[in-house]
Amino acid sequence: MTLVYFPLILVVLGRVGMATGCPSHERCICNVHDMSMACEKLESITWTELVRQIPGYVETVRIIGSTFDAELSNRVNFVRPKPNVDIPLKVNVHSLDIVGSSLANLDETAFQMMPNLKEVHLVDAGLNTQVLSYLSFLKLVEVVNLSHNKLEEFPYGLLQSWPLTRELNLSHNRITNFDFHVSSKSSSVKLLDLSYNHISFLHPDSFENGTSLLELNLQSNHLKYLHPMIAEDLGQSVVIHLGNNPWACHCGLEWLVKVLSSQKQSNVAFADPNLIRCASPPDLQSRSLVNISVNQLRCEQPDFVSYPTHQTLRFMESKLLECNVSGYPTPSVYWLTPHGPIVHPDHKYWVPSHVASSPDYVHFSGRPSYFHAAIEAQSNGSLLFEDFRYYFDGQYTCIAINPAGSVDYSLNVTIFVSLPNTITMSLMWGFSSSGCFFLICMIIGGILHCRRRRDGFDLSQYYPELTITFPDDYYDSYCDQSDESYYCDQSPLQSYKPSPYRSPKKCVTPAEGMDLDRGWPQTGANIRETLESVRARLRQNMEKQVDKMKSQAQHVKQTSHRYMKNMKSSTGRTMKTLRHTSSQYVHKMREGMVLGVEQVKNHVQSMKELCGTGHMSHTISTISVSTDIDSNQKKAVVKSITYV
């Protein structure tokens, strides 16, 4: 059963008065008898404004060739209203038909205004993925028609939001995927129309969870093959439309030929079997599968045209691994990688079901993650490495499969990191990190400098000064000796002025000076004590440094001694090995020379016996050179042997 929409021809008689409660538009007509409202070519109006003007008795709304403006909240970028807040509700509207209009400006409250909709026909309405998501608010909808909307994908998970939906029409779109298995078990859809789309592959497990389908329309798509598991998983008495698809007639469709020719029982029934025709090979082109025998379906097992080779790639290198295969039908090629299987979407016809759900690429997941790196399956079966990393190192297997069989080949892909690249990367990271720290310090220092200048601090270098003032009536020198025989005229510190405390014959001792006055002598004693403590600390630090240097020198000496000892031992063993090897070589050469001379003797004796006695003679000269390894002196010995 296919949903067909008959266009509505509106006859505009004039503006409908307020008595009917119809919207104040010349292009809208309301009918009280069939409780409907029809509008044509509406402009300069929002969806909310139109819904507010729908009379309360209307159950069916039909809109043709209209364009709705964006909501005011969207135009001025206000916050959108919350659901069910200040929006008009039309609970009596059960059917909504919109044809040849533009619904791109609808917001999420559009279908919340009609929560009791049971039939929704949005045909050629300029739908997009965002507007489709707004349909999830329709919990009571039973019939959904979304044909002629140029949809490239449909969110099949939306079926879980429609528990009562019986019919879903997605015909005349551009849908390429068929993921009905995502929600097939929880869906109540009886009729699914996917005709006139771009579907080229059906997953073998599309209906493994069971389904309530009674009719599936897949005619006029790009199907070349249908897996037998699909027919087995469908329920009893299911009708499938498969006509007008470019079927590739080979041994993989043997089960379908047997079902169509009544040679095999099946759960499903195929509508219009005469429309299921071959597009390839050329000898079966345009022939119906009903009129083809199983013997005419041929296959060739996959075979490698060229084998991929083991690869050693450099860090960040890009490489293409080719896996060229032949066979009929064209084999599907997928790769087993260290991170799971990957397969291109064009190669999912013959692969196992668990591989058909695999992606066509593996991205690099590591640090630094902002570097793009990936391995990606190509449409020709090759494998592309982009910016190779350690993450991709491992074994890779190319597998080619078709209905006649499969072949595989494994290879290892390793990484080679050269020392210059490693050093370059290390230096680059080191300089960049140090440069960042230097820049941060410069910025912080500049900010602090400007702040101190602003606060009036003097930023010039400051050197502390020590000033000592001596009173005029104090003596400016005293003796550091306690000996009574020590006189002041022998002291290097002379008094510039006579002091009443100065003795004419001897210097005042520190103790006496301290008894006379508690000021300056005490200061001198403190200075001397400070100097002595500083001198002691310096002496102690120097002793520690000297001890440390001695220990380091001793460690270096011991290390050097061990190194020289090991090197001497290693050199001795090496020389001993060389001497032994050389002597063996010389001995073997001598034995070879002796053996050669003996062989020459035997040959000459044989010739003599053969030719008899005569004047034939042979002289053989040999030169042997011997070298003394210890003294490196060469000695040559010449030996001549004459045979007659």
From TrEMBL:
<keyword id="KW-1133">Transmembrane helix</keyword>
<dbReference type="Pfam" id="PF13855">
    <property type="entry name" value="LRR_8"/>
</dbReference>
<dbReference type="InterPro" id="IPR032675">
    <property type="entry name" value="LRR_dom_sf"/>
</dbReference>
<protein>
    <recommendedName>
        <fullName>Ig-like domain-containing protein</fullName>
    </recommendedName>
</protein>
<keyword id="KW-1015">Disulfide bond</keyword>
<dbReference type="InterPro" id="IPR050541">
    <property type="entry name" value="LRR_TM_domain-containing"/>
</dbReference>
<dbReference type="InterPro" id="IPR007110">
    <property type="entry name" value="Ig-like_dom"/>
</dbReference>
<keyword id="KW-0677">Repeat</keyword>
<keyword id="KW-0175">Coiled coil</keyword>
<dbReference type="InterPro" id="IPR000483">
    <property type="entry name" value="Cys-rich_flank_reg_C"/>
</dbReference>
<dbReference type="InterPro" id="IPR001611">
    <property type="entry name" value="Leu-rich_rpt"/>
</dbReference>
<dbReference type="InterPro" id="IPR013783">
    <property type="entry name" value="Ig-like_fold"/>
</dbReference>
<dbReference type="InterPro" id="IPR036179">
    <property type="entry name" value="Ig-like_dom_sf"/>
</dbReference>
<dbReference type="GO" id="GO:0005886">
    <property type="term" value="C:plasma membrane"/>
</dbReference>
<keyword id="KW-0433">Leucine-rich repeat</keyword>
<feature type="domain" description="Ig-like">
    <location>
        <begin position="302"/>
        <end position="414"/>
    </location>
</feature>
<keyword id="KW-0732">Signal</keyword>
<feature type="signal peptide">
    <location>
        <begin position="1"/>
        <end position="21"/>
    </location>
</feature>
<feature type="transmembrane region" description="Helical">
    <location>
        <begin position="427"/>
        <end position="448"/>
    </location>
</feature>
<keyword id="KW-0812">Transmembrane</keyword>
<dbReference type="InterPro" id="IPR003591">
    <property type="entry name" value="Leu-rich_rpt_typical-subtyp"/>
</dbReference>
<keyword id="KW-0472">Membrane</keyword>
<feature type="coiled-coil region">
    <location>
        <begin position="528"/>
        <end position="559"/>
    </location>
</feature>
